[in-house]
Amino acid sequence: MNQSALEGFVKIVEMDSFSAAAEALYLSQSALSQQIRTLEGQLQFELFQHVPRRVILTPAGRDFYPKAKQLTALYQEAVRHARAVQQQENPPERHLVIAWSHEAMRMFGYDLFSLTNELCLQYTSIMMQCASRSEVWRSLKKGDADLSFQLESAEFYAQGFTFIPLLYVPELCIPIHPPADMPVGRLSLEQALQYRWLPVKEMYQTVYETSLLQEGLERGVNFTPVGGIRSASYGDPALKMVPAVYYRRPDLSFARVLDWGRGHRFGIVLGQKRGDPLVMAYVRALQQLLPSLSEKLFGLKLEPVEE
C-alpha cells in the first residue's frame, strides 16, 4: 500500500477538499486524484462518492478513515524511531554547523529544523552563536562553521565568500502615526515616498536596501538614519523599514509589503567549506525544499531565486 496515497486520503478528509489537500501536500490535484484511484484499486473498494466539487465518503470510506489515520501516524512514528536508532548505532562523523549573530536568524534556523526533520537527522545540523557579523565571517573563513543564512550583502562578497540565493524576501513597512487613508497590504514606492523612512538597521548592510535607499534619496524621501531620533517627540507619519526575515509571519492588516523590485535575496553564505560534499548536499536539499516551506517560515508565499 502506498503511504503517500494513504496520507493523501487522510488529508482530503481532514480538509474536506481535494484542492486544499493537494496544495497542502504540494501536489497537483490530478496527481492526488490518481493516488486515490490507485489506493482504491489496492483496497478493492471506493473511498469517495463521485459527487462534483464535494467530498463525501462512502460507507466503506467512513469506516476506513479512522484506521487509516492511525496507520499513517504509526508509520511516521516507526520511521522516526528507526532513524533515531540508526543515529545511535551509526553516529555522524560531524555536525553541520550554521553560524548566526542575529536572533532572527537563530529563530529562522530552529523553525527550519522543525519543518525539515529528515534533513536534521541526516545532517545533524546545529546552530552556532557568534557575537557579531564579523565573528560569523571569521568562523566561515576558519572552517569553524559550515554556512550561514544571510540577506545578500556586498560585505561578504568583499570577504571572498560564496553566496547561494534561495528566496526573494520583501521589505516590510511598519507604519508609525499612519494617516487614515494609508493603503493596507502593499505600498508602491511612490506611496512609500510620502512618509519618513526609519530603517531598523543600517540600510547599507544589504544589496537591496542600498539600492532602495539610493532610489529614495534621489527622489527626495525624508530619511532618518538609525539613531537619528532618540527621545524627541515626532508626529509626522513614518515607516519603519525592515526586511521580512526580521519580522516573519507579519500581520498584514498592520504591516505593509513594499512593492519595489523583487526584494532582498535571502540565501546561504559559504566560506572554507564551500567545496565540502556534505555541505553542498545540504544546500542542494534546501534549494529543493525551501520554496514550498516559505509560507510556513515567513507567513508569505515567496518567489524562489532561479539561477
Automatic annotation (TrEMBL):
Residues 1-58 form the HTH lysR-type domain. InterPro entries: LysR_HTH_N, WH-like_DNA-bd_sf, WH_DNA-bd_sf. The keyword Transcription applies. Keywords: DNA-binding, Transcription, Transcription regulation. Pfam families: HTH_1 (PF00126). GO terms for molecular function: DNA-binding transcription factor activity; transcription cis-regulatory region binding. It comes from the Bacteria. SUPFAM superfamilies: Winged helix' DNA-binding domain. Belongs to the LysR transcriptional regulatory family. This is LysR family transcriptional regulator. It comes from Faecalibacterium taiwanense.
